[in-house]
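A quick aside before the break. I want you to see a complete sequence-to-structure record at least once, exactly as it would be stored in a machine-readable document. Don't worry about memorizing anything.
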Amino acid sequence: MGFFITFEGIEGCGKTTQIRRAAHWLSSTGRDVVVTREPGGCPIADDIRAILLDARNSAMVPLAELLLYAAARAQHVSEVISPALAAGKVVLCDRFTDSTLAYQGYGRDLDRGLIGHLNALAAGAVKPDLTVILDCPVETGLSRAMARINSTSAAREERFERESRLFHERIRDGFLALAAAEPNRFAVVDGSRGVEETGVAIQELLARRLAGR
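That is the input. The structure line, written in tokens, reads:
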């Protein structure tokens, strides 16, 4: 069986950059690595992602948002994550079920029991072996996120970046609460440091957790 690693955190925490670095390092050690993301990761889920992250859909109600995430995840797990793990690969995923708990549970204040049930339906038996939370102050993350959005000519995925600072503070608190509740699965890494320093910390973490596998 493979090894499933998820990267979590607020907007602009540096997940995407660090996943690329981690994938490069893991591949250099001879491991077969799959990099994917949520929402998205396969054509159907990518179509749902476009709906979820488009700022023009600001009228979307929280329950509809939650159900779309669950639908995208069900397809993604079935089409990408489960087959890769069954093939013995290391899967690195940019967001997974913990983001739904943090954003829709802590951020939107939807029922966390309901979210847990939907996460279980969508993901089945798939659960991360390790979850890396890149933690940084909200103002740092949002500043980075908007700089990234403003620098690209691609579709502007900014529906969440337009939310209030308080919303993002609740999300950060949610991630840290989840980490405190499952210390064996989660590792909190300071994402406010430079790319290189953060990358070294993650590489050392992965080396420890994958030792002997």
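Two observations worth writing down. The two ends are 10 Å apart (CA to CA). The longest helix spans residues 62-86. We'll return to this after the break.
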